[in-house]
Amino acid sequence: MNLSLATQYLIKAQDASGGWGYLPGHSPVVEPSAAALLALHGVAEAQGTALQALDWLRATQHADGGWGFCDHDEESNWHTAWAVIALQRAAPGDAAIQPGLTWLAHLGDPSGAGDDFSPAASGLAANDPAALAWSWLPAEATWVEPTALACLALQGERADPDVAARLEAAAGYFAQRRCQGGGWNVGNPVMFHTPLPARACQTAWVLLALSRIRPGQVQADDLQAMWQDMLLDGGARALAWAALALQTLGHSGEAALNLLAALQAADGSWEQNTYDTALAVLAAGGAF
């Protein structure tokens, strides 16, 4: 894996505003911008690039403390977790972090009112509509990815009893949403009375979250399910997230990293996608 070439690709792909789109030349979005900032943090030749990215994140924060999908999205949403994680790592103590954490701690509908499932639908999807977790948008249904990312952002706030209670509830949510045989998908382990398979990225996100909030809940079957779907998927995103989860949990990610390295393009990118390229760089570093 040529990390120097990948770094140069990310530097060149940065928008003049300081953010990144999913593809070079596309409008900046919080998720790839945060991932790229994390990938470039601490890289000497990317110092100026990282400073511009920090300025972009600060400028796109809303008055309520959250972030939207992009700079012209006026509604705060789950992308707040990405922005907070990036700022926590790249600029600890930044004034934008605490308002973001406060907003994020209240995302999701504790009463379950946002999970608008009828009793019949609840029987078909193995969900508890009152589950205390996180949603993509305020007052909507809860899902695995925003819940896992929120846990990663809020893990350092467990001294706050309200946050601690939500993280504890999130661990219970993950237990409830676990697929038969291990691992996780977008949220429902069963649909129309049929067990759904685990997916590599979703399983990796949950494993990363559990490694911080309840590591004893991770089972060998979860790692096996992630590994199997990673091989079936074969894409850079699945390989990178799986490698990060494996390494975080103390396992070797060498095989996943070798497969990932084989997918790197001549220009240093993975599929000319800035988000996937940033994830690959993070995976090579072994930490998220």
Explain how this protein is built.
Helix 7 packs parallel to helix 9 and helix 9 (200-213) packs parallel to helix 11 (236-248). The chain is mainly alpha-helical and 288 residues long. Helices cover 52% and strands 1% of the residues. Mean pLDDT is 91; it is low at 109-126. It has helices at 3-13, 30-40, 47-60, 79-90, 97-105, 119-124, 144-154, 161-176, 200-213, 220-233, 236-248, 254-261, 274-285, and strands at 190-191, 194-195.
Set down the secondary structure blueprint.
Blueprint: H1 3-13, H2 30-40, H3 47-60, H4 79-90, H5 97-105, H6 119-124, H7 144-154, H8 161-176, E1 190-191, E2 194-195, H9 200-213, H10 220-233, H11 236-248, H12 254-261, H13 274-285
Antiparallel strand pairs: 1-2
Helix pairs in contact: 1-13, 2-3, 2-4, 2-13, 4-5, 4-7, 7-8, 7-9, 9-10, 9-11, 10-11, 11-12, 11-13
Measured as a percent range, the helix fraction is 40-55%
**Could you give the count of β-strands?**
2
How much strand?
under 5%
Low-confidence parts lasting 5 or more residues at pLDDT below 50? 109-126
Please list the strands of the largest sheet in the order they lie side by side.
1-2
> How many individual helices?
13
Q: Quick check: average pLDDT?
A: 91
Question: What labels describe this entry?
Answer:
two-stranded antiparallel ribbon, globular, 288 residues, 13 helices, mainly alpha
